[in-house]
Amino acid sequence: MRFILYYSSLLSLIVIAYLIANHLLNVVNKDIKEARGELDKKEIKKSRASFYKSFDSKLRKNERVNSMFSRIDDKLIRLGNPIHLNSFYYLLIKILLLILGIVYVKNFFSTVSVLLSILLFFYIDIVNYSKNIKDEKLMRLDFPEIYNALEIDTYAEIPFDKSIVECYDVIKNQRLKKAFSDLSAEVITKKDIGSALNNLKSKFNNTIEINSFALTIEQGLQTGAMREMLGNQRRVLTKSFLNSKDIETTTKNMKVTIAVLLLLISASSIIVYSFATKIFSSLNFLLK
């Protein structure tokens, strides 16, 4: 029985590693070929006819399955999807990780093994959420520059559909850069700013900065007070950034102070203990 469990867990690990590696390789190769213009229609059709994609399309014919897959796809997009998985690969890897976790618990049953199995099952979600939190922190640094670039363009009376293109150069976070690239392309081609801003919001997990940006642009275009609104947002975000830096510096200083105090207390305790030991030993010697 242990022999079967061992090899089934090993097989699950090999399959998971192969699926992730194969998927990432396909994504990279497709991006390279698209950039070079080498991905022709025949190759696209051929790639779509692969086993996994054909199986995925068959599953999606069921309305409930399609609805579930769509929700998972939306969730992955909002979290940045750093592993570049679609809903089918996401569920398949989660199932394999679940099997691996069950095998591990059966072989080495303990509280630690149960916790590790749960951690293993939610590994992809942990990666997605942690990467999303990191992206949100970095994006906060980009938005004052975005507002500043758009505000400068309003003085030159440059239309929004042209000034939004310039934001690409001031953005440092790659995920936000890609989202703004799609935004500018959609604004230029479709001329529907409202729809483009909604699509921008759908790519992020209800991020405050993204929602505020979309609301500012919409209200600025409606009221004609774009310059004032952009300036206000830039000042608010700059002040917020400086305050967060002050808090971060204060927190670091406090941690250093606490660490120094703990070291002093530890050193003092050792000194007091050594003196106390010597005093008691001296008293015992005198009393004898």
Question: What would you say about this model in short?
Answer:
It contains twelve helices and no strands. The chain is an all-alpha fold and 288 residues long.
Give a written overview of the molecule.
This protein has helices spanning 2-36, 41-48, 51-59, 63-78, 87-107, 111-121, 123-155, 160-170, 174-190, 193-202, 208-223, 226-287. The protein has twelve helices and no strands. By secondary structure, it is mainly α. It is flat and about 100 Å long. The longest helix is centred in the last third of the chain and has 62 residues, at 226-287. Helix 1 (2-36) packs antiparallel against helix 5 (87-107), helix 7 (123-155) crosses helix 8 (160-170) and helix 7 (123-155) packs across helix 12. Residues 41-49 have low confidence and may be disordered.
- Give the helices and strands as they follow along the chain: HHHHHHHHHHHH
Largest sheet: none
Oligomeric state of the chains present here: single chain
Mean pLDDT over all positions:
76
Number of helices: 12
Overall SS class: mainly alpha
Number of extended strands: 0
Strand residues, percent: under 5%
Helix percentage: over 70%
The separation of the N and C termini measures 71 Å
Low-confidence stretches: 41-49
Given the C-alpha coordinates, what overall shape results?
A: flat
Walk me through the topology.
Blueprint: H1 2-36, H2 41-48, H3 51-59, H4 63-78, H5 87-107, H6 111-121, H7 123-155, H8 160-170, H9 174-190, H10 193-202, H11 208-223, H12 226-287
Helix pairs in contact: 1-5, 5-6, 7-8, 7-12, 8-9, 9-10, 10-11, 11-12
